[in-house]
Amino acid sequence: MTELLAPAGNIEALDAALGEGADAVYMGLKSFNARLRSSNFAWNQFEAAVQSVHRLGKKIYVTVNTVSEEHETERLYRFLNYLNKIGPDGIIVQDFGVVRMCQEFCPNLELHASTQMNVESAAAANLLSREGLKRVVVARELGLEEIKQIKSKTNAEIEMFVHGALCVSESGLCLFSSYLGGKSANRGMCTQACRRLYNAEIPGNLSTGYYFSPCDLELIGQVPELMQAGVDSFKIEGRMKSAEYVGAVTAAYRYVMDHWETDRKGAIAEGRRILSTDFARSKTDYWYGFKTVEEGVEEAGAKILNPKQAGGTGIYLGKLSLLRPASAEEKQQAANIAVESEKATDIQMAVISGGDYDPDPGDSIRLHKQDDSGRESHKVRVVTVDEKDQRWVDVPNGFVKGDSVYLLQTKSMSKRYKRVLPSDLSQFRKQPGPERLPVLDLTPVDKNGLSWFPEGLYVGVSTIADAHLMGPLHPVRVIVELNCETAYDLLVKDKPEKPVLPYSKKMVIISLDPYVPEGSEPQLEETLEKLVEKGYTTFVVNNLAHINILKGKKGVHMIAGQYLYTFNKWAVSFLENQNIMAVIPPAENSERNLNDTFETENERSRVLVSVFSYPVLFRMRFKLPKDYDFTYFSDKERMGFKVNSTDDGSFVMPEAPFSLLDKMDSLKTKGWKRQLIDFSKTKVTKGDIRGLLNLLQNHGYVDGCSRFNWKDGFYNPEKMEAYQAANARRELEEAEGINGRKPRYGKPGKGKGKGGKPRRR
Question: How far apart are CA 421 and CA 52, in angstroms?
Answer without folding.
Answer: 6
